[in-house]
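Data availability excerpt. The first of two example chains:
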Amino acid sequence: MEKAIAILAAGIGSRYGGIKQMEPVGPSGEFIIDYSVFDAIRAGFNKVVFIIRHDIETDFINTIGKRIGERIEVAYAYQELDDPLPPETQYDPQRTKPWGTVQAALACDGILNGPFAILNADDFYGSDSYATLSKYLDVMVSQNVNACMVGFMLAHTLSKFGTVTRGICESNDNDMLEGIVETQGIGLDDETICYEDSSGNKFQLNADDLASMNMWGFTPDVLDLFKEKFDVFLKAHAQELKSEYVIPTAVNTLVEQGKVSVKVLSTTSDWFGITNPADKEDVVRRIAELVRSGQYPDNLWKGDVPVTSGDRHRDA
């Protein structure tokens, strides 16, 4: 059975100069995206779809795609400003930016043939999060659930070097998502996690609040629902230069309308990434610690990838 992971990589810039997704962070020059695919393979995923742009295709394939294609089936989807868009869409000719992560997901339509995961290219999610997501994708259809998301403990998603924006998850007693509250300016204040509203008032958050870090699982039918909502978004916002329609917003709307049911999965993994420029040194340090503790080899692609569940990977 196909079990794919789609990676949102259309934001990577040409030639990778100074682009955070292509900053080497591993001891053998690995990028964060290498660790994502490595963890996906050993969790039982057997296909990866890279969502990119045509102008970075050659560089991306030569830098990443070829070596990863030796270990797992690789496909490419392309997110461009005008594709996929309804033919009647009229947008400002000065706009150059694509329309957000819902459009990116729609670029995978026809490429995915079963339940799939979708996540950011520049986030380190940790091995347990992939294992947890993989196992749930195997059973979600039988549980009459068409979406799931991995929620990370808020305390495990903060930056030491500035505030962050996080989607705080609200779920019921059955761990079904009731909504995601986009919360800006989250940081530490004397070891207390808090955020400020627009008036400067501080509010405390809990360390174990679950935050969405854009790590989702869906059945393919959800793409049809995304398309419906994306078309509605375009009718209202197509003339705006920077408006985007993102997956958490679409999911929130579909939950409110009772069209999707979303299981919230918790993980023991720490999330980290390069949110602020000073984060890179911390990311390099943390990966080095994981290598020293034996959780990752010092060269990810030198030997076989140990598969702990699901289908075995294609031999190199």
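And the second chain:
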Amino acid sequence: MADDAPTTDEAPVEEAPPTDERREAVVAELRELMGDAVVDALVKPGLGIWVRVATDAWSETAEVVRHRMDFRFFDFLSAIDWLPSPYGRYEDSAVDVPFPPPMPDRADAEPGYTGGDTRFQVLGSVAKPGTDLRLLLKADVPDDDLRIGTWVRTFAGAAWHERETHEMFGITFEGNPDLRHIYLPSDFEGHPLRKEFPLLSRVVKPWPGIVDVEPMPGEADDAEGGEDA
């Protein structure tokens, strides 16, 4: 029986990508207030806002989003090292990891949403009380001068976070008067969250999750019984 359904050569209509006018408006307002200091921005509809700002505008951005845009809730501040790990994934290696390893090329780094031009970036998250609007701010930290402005004059809660970031990554927050260590001795050498900092227990022996594990009592017998059944 012939198919009487109409035919057409028209291409299917593509659906427009989802938009989020409320979050796009936040980005537009921040661009208006900060101008060229806003390097890049990304909105994921219904989820969040990512904005990268110029390094020298980091402290000013905190003041603007709190006092002029009402993002008064401080969530967290930290940093990230985009350098690929010179050790690879410890758990993927069944043999000892070479030490010291060859350092990877920073050009292979993938700096995530809104990009990045340096190995280290600082990240700060703030929210607008009474709404579901959250803003993740990020800024590059110069490779040859690991310093950036502080947020403590705007968000007092950032003090502890900046201390931890200074300790773990070696980034100095200019204007923060108290960057003492929190976890490690004051004379500790190195910064444990940098990619080149070795996890020594994994350098000297394989990751325990990939070595042969002896079966629990009774498991071997059960397996043999299952084969005979």
